[in-house]
Write a structure and sequence with these properties.
The protein is α/β, with parallel strands linked by helices and about 325 residues long. The chain is about 45% helix and about 20% strand. The chain is built from 14 helices and twelve strands.
Length: about 325
């Protein structure tokens, strides 16, 4: 193609883009379709509400939901396989990939909790207080928020990671691993803690965590998707914001929608719902959290590299600024 032909083609595409935008049609490469990888947990309630209430459709997009057992797996699949545009995950999976790639970014935080990740042990395995964990086998989903919580928990109780034996188990399989005595304790989030407690009865002991960890739950997108589908991304976040407002104003109905969608015991949501603070945002605490976990990963030898990445490059604020400007408060953005 010569220079003149290339110029004419670019000019034609510009005119076409302007025309379709004026007609209210999406200019995205996906034509208004987003494939979303989601962990099937209550953290993702804004997604389940938007799906149920038709908020995605109201905003002119089609969202195909693909379900995953953990945020770790959802994010890893998005990054390594074709076909997923946005995924959900907490901060630890985000930092675990940041030492060798930078082709993704957080586009919004949908919820946070100071009391979601917990340590549950078996009394009949000699665990009556945190110090009894020494020499025991702890099940955790490696590279997840539970993994980082385990390090914080042990340090809080004057123990080290080397004091326990760690077994990497997918989150949904941790309760059964504890019931079958494959491990002596587990670190994970709800509803898995609830189900393990229910199965073990009096044999289960929830060990005090002291609210040592704030878990965020993000929407993360590939940068090539962000660059080519900015309008669809805004529409997606508008739908999520509608969901968050619905949750705040209609708690009982929101809980029922989530319980039905995930086939959850209503008792789980009654016990844990108020631990979740639903608020679509991008604030300074996100940057601080990513930097802190990155330092832990480097110091513990769990990450390759010698320096903490600049996480400003892993946060995309423009879409949320357009949708909910008051929710963005990150220095340098």
């Amino acid at each position: 193609m010569n220079i003149g032909d290339r110029f004419n083609r670019v000019a034609l595409l510009s005119v076409l883009a302007a025309f379709t935008a004026g007609c209210g049609t999406s200019t995205s490469e996906h034509g208004g379709k987003i494939v979303l990888g989601v962990e099937t947990v209550a953290h993702a309630s804004p997604v389940w509400i938007a799906e149920n209430k038709g908020y995605f459709r109201e905003e002119g997009i089609t969202v195909e939901i693909r379900e995953f057992e953990s945020g770790r797996t959802a994010l890893r699949t998005m990054l390594n396989d074709e076909g997923i545009d946005i995924s959900t995950a907490a901060q630890t999976p985000v930092i675990s990939h940041s030492f060798n790639r930078s082709d993704y970014a957080i586009v919004g935080n949908m919820v946070y909790s100071d009391n979601d990740v917990k340590m549950l042990g078996r009394r009949d395995r000699g665990i009556n207080n945190p110090s009894d964990l020494k020499g025991k086998t702890v099940g955790v989903t490696g590279g997840s928020s539970g993994h980082f919580f385990l390090a914080l928990f042990l340090a809080f109780h004057q123990l080290q990671m080397s004091d326990v034996n760690i077994l990497d188990i997918e989150a949904t399989h941790l309760p059964q691993a504890l019931v079958e005595e494959k491990v002596d304790a587990i670190v994970t989030w709800e509803p898995h803690i609830h189900y393990a407690k229910k199965a073990l009865g009096d044999k289960a002991l929830l060990l005090p965590g002291g609210n040592i960890y704030r878990e965020d739950f993000y929407f993360i997108a590939k940068k090539d998707f962000i660059n080519g589908n900015s309008e669809d991304l805004k529409r997606f976040l508008k739908a999520i914001e509608k969901s968050e407002q619905f949750i705040l104003k209609n708690k009982p109905e929101a809980m029922e929608i989530v319980a039905r969608r995930l086939n959850l015991d209503r008792e789980v949501l009654k016990e844990t719902w108020d631990d979740f603070q639903f608020s679509l945002s991008l604030d300074q605490s996100i940057l601080t959290s990513l930097e802190d976990e990155s330092k832990w990963a480097l110091n513990s030898g769990m990450a390759e590299g010698t320096t903490t990445p600049n996480y400003l490059h892993y946060i995309y604020v423009d879409a949320l600024k357009a949708v909910k400007p008051e929710a963005v408060s990150i220095a340098g953005k």
